[in-house]
Structure formats: C-alpha cells, structure tokens
Amino acid sequence: MTDINFYVSKQEGLENRLNIAYRLVNLAISRGLKIHILTDNIETSKQIDALLWSKEQASFIPHAIVNIESDQNHPELQNQINISHDFEPLHDCDYLINLSNLRPAFFSRFLKVAEILDNNEEILTAGRKRYSFYRDRGYTLEYHKL
Predict the structure, then answer these.
(1) How much is the average pLDDT of 35-47?
(2) Mean pLDDT for the chain?
(3) CA distance 81 to 94
(4) Burial of 40 by CB count in 10 Å (0-12 exposed, 13-18 middle, 19+ buried)?
(5) How confident is the model at residue 69 (pLDDT cuts 50, 70, 90)?
(6) Mapping DSSP to helix (H, G, I), strand (E, B) and coil, where does residue 124 land?
(7) How many domains does the chain have?
(8) Mean pLDDT across 61-71
(9) What pLDDT was estimated at residue 54?
C-alpha cells in the first residue's frame, strides 16, 4: 500500500513548496527512486524545471517536462524524474511529488506520495480534504511541519 507523507511549510507561497520539492527530489535520488512531479499548470512545471537546473551549480539533476503531446515515444521511460501538469505516467513509478491542489487519480500506483502544502488557506483546505480521503481508505499517513 502507498505511503503518503504531508509536508507543510509554515510559510506561504509557491516558492516555499518548490524548495521543499527540491529537497525531497534530492533525497529520492540518493535512494535511487524514479520520481514523477505533478503540478497544477505548465507555469509551475517550468518553475520546478528551472529550479532543478539552477539550484546548485555543482550538481545536475536529470529530468524532463512531459505532457500529453510529448508522449510520442513514452519519454517517462528515459528519465529518472518527470514533471507534468497533464500527464499520467503509463508505468509505475516509485515516488509521486504532488505540487498540485488535486488528488491524482493514479496516486496508488506509487510506493510513496509526498503532498506538499504551504500556509495558504486554500492550499491547506485542499490538503485537508486529500488527507481525509487517504485516511478514510486506510493509507499510512505521516505529517511533517517544516
């Protein structure tokens, strides 16, 4: 069964959530996990893409933005990290990092899910609904206040 962790920033804003995602990506890479990052829109996908390219000059994190149009040759098979706002992975992955405000229908195919929230009321409310959904179905949940 999928393990689900909620990471909640005490601060508000997308930048804080992106930085949390960056730290989780680094941890997952060190464990050899295949990662899918889900965002709300192409702009957020581009922001996490830019962060993975530029956060640390000395390290490169191989990744790609995938979408419905780019799925000609199943690009998710070629990357350890995929970023998308409109693409459901066709194959099982190890780790889903959810930066969107929705519960992905495909979350249960992953070994682990990270739900990243900040102190914005709209984001917290949507996160509480997802937490209740997962809890009511018996998923293992952990909550981390950052």
Answers:
(1) 94
(2) 87
(3) 10
(4) middle
(5) low
(6) helix
(7) 1
(8) 64
(9) 72
Say yes or no to pLDDT of 72 above 80. no
Full residue range of the structural domain in which residue 89 is found: 3-145
Distance in angstroms (rounded) separating the CA atoms of residues 141 and 143: 7
* 39-47 long-range contacts, CB within 8 A, separation 24+: 39/83, 39/84, 39/85, 39/99, 39/100, 40/85, 40/99, 40/100, 40/101, 40/102, 41/85, 42/67, 42/85, 44/14, 44/18, 44/85, 44/99, 45/83, 45/84, 45/85, 47/14, 47/18
One-letter amino acid for residue 64 of the chain: A
Residue 94 sits in a domain of what CATH number? 3.40.50.10110
pTM: 0.89
- Rg, Å, the chain Cα set: 14
